[in-house]
Specification:
23% helix, Alpha-Beta Plaits, ten-stranded mixed beta sheet, alpha+beta
Length: 271
Amino acid sequence: MSPAEAGDSRVQADRIRVRLLVAYDGSGFHGFWPNEGVTTVGGTLIAALEQVLGTGIEMTCAGRTDAGVHAWGQVVTFDAPAEVDLGRLQVAVNKLCGPAVVVREAGEVAPDVDARGSATGRTYRYTVLNRAFPDPFLHATTWHVPQTLDLRAMTLACDPFIGSHDFSSFCRRPKVAEGQDPVSLTRRVTDARWTELDDGLLRFEITANAFCHQMVRSVVGLLVDVGRGRTRAGDVLGIIRARDRQVAPSPAPPQGLCLWSVAYAAGDETG
């Protein structure tokens, strides 16, 4: 082994890749990703981690949730000194960030595991409160829709989303520099369904390999329009195929949305 290789080994031995499973109430944050001048979930989490670790970190997340969006199963990865006690790290970070941001699990993973790049699927849940009057205790986590919704029609309208589609009708297209190819908005949806809970609560759950910006909220906005009778379930496939953001309704409000879970290949989830 050359001196350079030995040096690289020492660097590797001094660091470990850490995976955190994080839950948060997004109500008081301007999204997840750090943004100068505003309070974000990621910025808050990084500041706490660096305070506890006593060193800077570079963090990757599985999903960059928007302002007001919540998470139960957000995943982040970063490198930390090999001697770190992950149990104590979890306790210390939760004291600094809780209860709005909580580390549910902390573990070591392989050095090549990346919260975003290694993810094979993501599941979001969106909750609608379908009652005549709002509920002050559910206001921060649901979209209140007072009109009676046709759940059967909304369920039928889920079917066209299954499979691989260009979701240009439901996403804000990213800006690209002049001369660059446009970003693909094709995503593969493997599950999309409504579940009727109790007392007027309706939950939409969707799983895909990845999601583009505002995709889930825009899909929910259309499905609720179907439930209101403003759009027919049979028109949904045509709206998908139009690849035109103007043909779909505005996104549902952010507070009903929650990043529920992120899937990884076997061996990538825990150390």
